[in-house]
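for the writeup, i need someone to sanity check this before i put it in the appendix. the sequnce is what the collaborator sent (i think, or maybe the updated version? ugh). structure was predicted straight from it, no edits. if anything looks off just tell me and ill rerun, i have time this weekend
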Amino acid sequence: MKSFFCELGAFCLFAFEVLRKIFTRRYSIASCTEQMYRIGVESISVVNLCSFFIGLVLVIQTAAQLARFGAKTEVSAVVFASFVREIGPVFAAIMFAGRSGTSIAAEIGSMVVTEQIDAYTVFGADPVAKLAVPRVLATTLMLPALTAIACVVGIASGFFLAIVHLDLEGSRYLKNGFEVITTTDVVSCLAKGVLFGLLIGLIATHLGFRTAKATEAVGASTTKTMVQCVLAILVLDLILAQFFLVVQGG
């Protein structure tokens, strides 16, 4: 427990420092743009591929269960609600953490091992402002966009499979699907993307800076990043799900 709270305290201090430097504009816009491309745009294929196949599997499994009750036409409501409320944000965040979060931790960890971080400090540059802030901003801004794209791709793949495989009418499929989606669902989907992206960026950069000066420590940091990101995403998702359920119910 002592070790856990020490780690949590160090992370909170690091997060506060990063957020403070975001609002004081002690970073380069060009560096942020470069990181947004590397972290966000280059992750589109991985996230979309995952969403595409999840959409197909979800339609097959859901249709098989609903057909037993004669409600096969309601498959679109399940697909739309599942993707917008849970599957889209959570799976996009997990794939994003595996693709970009670990990459950030490995990159910064390698700089620690090769003493490049020490060189930044010696020459009077702020390594947190130079390295952590652009990456945290990139993850925070790009994951909501990736989440929205993942939802569209997953719903579209389910739509085409439902038409081809289940012989459902396309217009009715879309009508039933959009009827179950509320404004709160869309807001919660994008809000989860923002908060998950912020969390992934902070965890990845924090563990990258805390990498020990040994070659094998880089691998340990990347593994630790993936594990902590997934756990943090699931815990935060539970909290946000309950929060938006209360908001929607109220």
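The first helix runs from residue 2 to 23. The chain has a mean pLDDT of 88.
thx in advance!!
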